[in-house]
Design a protein that fits this description.
This protein has 267 residues and is an alpha+beta fold. The chain has 2 domains: 68 residues, Orthogonal Bundle (434 Repressor (Amino-terminal Domain)), CATH 1.10.260.40; 128 residues, Umud Fragment, subunit A (Ribbon), CATH 2.10.109. It contains 10 helices and 9 strands. It has a 9-stranded mixed beta sheet with strand order 2-1-3-4-9-5-6-7-8. Helix 2 packs across helix 3. The radius of gyration is 27 Å and the shape is extended. The relative contact order is 0.10.
């Protein structure tokens, strides 16, 4: 972390403010500021939050970005990106409701996937999508269903319907969380998501099928994220190759054992 280095840099950039003046502004002692800057102690979260607000930086920047080697434009862009990923601005989810004012689960079939990336926030576009109510899902949350093509997420079979729960704050996603990701250029994909926003401003997307290479996508290209909640399929998932081979081997052994018993009985 860059906390100690950043704290000293920000204090000295702020009109070469003294440790005592900063301590008075934050409501802590000068010796505490000194120990934080020297790396001899770490402030509590509430104090770190005060520092971030005081110097008008994000908590993430205070801890994880070398502010002394980062230009102002990059910092501003990083702030806007953090706001975007946490849904503080710029992102609006459009929904539809049934006659009883219950949120619908709109189904986005494969043939509508390309259009969805352009009209996801258009109430007129959503109005024409098939709509359902699924009683087994948790109440008080927003869901949408997507038809997933391809075999990148085996054992989930192609053309399965994945039901996703809307994620407002992307920073709360756990690494390897399976999500439907809607983006400007990639369209609709189902992937395991890894948050790399702090390091590179991206999400790393991985498939469960190892024949597909992982790739990164810039967070500001992403329109929506829906974490996996359930799926509906007309086909049973394929067995893992190793398990399938073991089952076949045991089946052969059973057949051979049966033949031996029959042969022994005849004798």
């Amino acid at each position: 972390m860059y906390l100690s280095k950043n704290l000293k840099f920000l204090r000295e950039q702020n009109g070469r403010q003294s440790q005592e003046n900063l301590a008075n502004s934050l409501g802590i002692t000068r010796s505490a500021i000194s120990s934080y800057e020297d790396g001899r102690a770490e402030p509590k979260l509430v104090v770190m939050n005060k520092v971030a607000h005081y110097f008008n930086v994000t908590l993430d920047q205070l801890l994880n970005v070398d502010l002394g080697n980062t230009d102002a434009v990059t910092l501003d862009n990083h702030k806007e990106l953090k706001k975007y990923t946490s849904a503080q601005n710029m992102r609006v989810l459009t929904i539809t409701v049934d006659k009883d004012d219950n949120e619908n689960i709109e189904l986005v079939p494969d043939k509508a996937a390309a259009g969805y990336s352009r009209g996801f926030a258009d109430a007129e576009f959503l109005k024409d999508l098939p709509k359902y109510q699924l009683p087994f899902l948790s109440k008080g949350r927003t869901y949408r269903a997507f038809e997933i093509t391809g075999d990148s997420m085996l054992p989930l079979m192609p053309n399965s319907i994945v039901i996703g729960e809307y994620v407002e704050n992307w920073n709360e996603l756990k690494d390897a969380q399976v999500c439907v990701v809607v983006s400007k250029n990639e369209g609709i994909v189902l992937k395991k998501v890894y948050n790399k926003i702090s390091e590179r401003g991206t999400f790393l997307l991985k498939s469960s099928n190892i024949s597909y290479s992982p790739y990164e996508i810039f967070a500001d290209e992403i329109l929506e994220v829906w974490k996996f909640a359930a799926y509906i399929s007309k086909s049973l998932p394929e067995e893992n190759g190793t398990v399938s081979d073991l089952r076949k081997a045991f089946s052969r052994l059973e057949d051979e054992f049966r033949e031996i018993r029959m042969a022994y009985g005849k004798k």
